[in-house]
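Model: Ready when you are.
Researcher: Fold this.
Model:
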Amino acid sequence: MRVLAINVRSGGSRSTAAALIARALGHRPQTLVLSEFRDNTTGAFLRRELARAGYAEQAATEGHRGNGVLIASTMAFSATRNPFGLADDEYPNAAIEARFSALRVFGVYLPGQDRKRPHLRCLIAIAQRYNERKIDALCIGDMNSGRNETDIELNLGRKRLADEFSTADLYAELERYWTEAWLHLHPGVREFSWYPFRKEPPASRRNGWRIDKAFVSQSLLPSVLDARYDHGFRLEGLTDHSGLIVDLCI
């Protein structure tokens, strides 16, 4: 099973949505997770075009103006919106849990700064429970968090941190229970999945962040075949994030 996650940037742009879908489908994933999905006209276009391409099984955060998540698949699944049971003022549209026959997928777009602390605490609790029950689970999308020392380009080679994730402590706790797939397969490698849109040439933009991640449960880890980034989404200006592709032997 191949899962592709991509942040479409503020709901996506109608001018680039078709090209973004085409690039995503070029990887032939069975399941897509779109972060920063919005329930608007561009969101409706994304859903319609994906359905036409065979991704008719869909679940999205609906009925609100802000950023959320869309999961679209060629495979049948049942969905739980707001799986963490958060209140309306706690960004409940940050996650969807899709339950496939042999796998559970959490598609996420975690909000910025400390606003994601409730979500990470819930993920940690779920990670512990799913490990105990040996449930195969994948959490994938824009985590908006990471390791201060390695996931912020400005910090590399510095004795003092130039910037920090406000939730790095909870991120580290999550790593105690679930394994980050890309890092597991690429130890010591440095890549960054998000750069802000700017006019300066790339050489002067050493401010990348690796915030698009995939975590797998203990029982699923042996089934991880590959995890890699497609930076073309970002370099072609389709969005400000790179895509993340994870291959599983499911």
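Researcher: Now this one.
Model:
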Amino acid sequence: MPGFRLLAGFAALLSAAHAQPVRVVRFADSIPFKMGEVTSRRIVHPGIGAKKTTLNLSISQAGAEFAQHVHDYSDDTILVLEGEVNLRQGGSMRLFKAGECAFVPTGQIHGTVTAGQGDTVMISFQNPPDLILYTGARDSKRPGAAAPKGEITPGAVKFVNFRKKNGEFTNAKLGSHRARGSRRTLKKGRSFRTKAASGGEQLLFVWKGAIRVKDATNAYTAGERDTVFINGPVELEVTGDQDGLTEIIQVDAP
């Protein structure tokens, strides 16, 4: 029985970790996974307790393809942070560049092919999480893999210039009913308040700069490419913590 008690204790510790209302996920601790010719990093995912959102970061070399695939139950939002890519749907390509995002509704076939000469940096979030994505089973470029089964509906994928926003760039008006994406900018010492409702999740991905986050009892810091993952109910104050402009991508999945 000692082994059983040890496993039970470990499970209790894991459950407690997942129940943390606020935790900082360091980019160095992200986990790689491959789709087609692109290796991505899963940052927020079910393995850390996420039930309503994910966050992945991809660095894609010129000409590399993130294989076409379909999310059966999830919406997908893809942001280009540096460089430019083509969103591929079957034989069609649609270019979008740094500062732009694509909202891909459930069931739509999609992938990306990096354009230009340099690397492209992208982040994406799926709502709710698509567990199959991380297994490689959706990789249509694997030898012997079947073509993805889904829809290619003209106009279904929406493109938005998120870098022109200081606030929401995806929401229910766009068709994103499961999550809202926002871009936030902060100068050092400036702050905003946010909260996640009971049962909701939120994340703050730091693209540039650094932030300090405070709840009722604790303070946390996050630097470039780090992510603050939040389980509600909790209220937070988020403050710019570095000289220059801090840029944050916020995802709220109520």
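Researcher: Key takeaway?
Model: The first strand starts at residue 22 and ends at 25.
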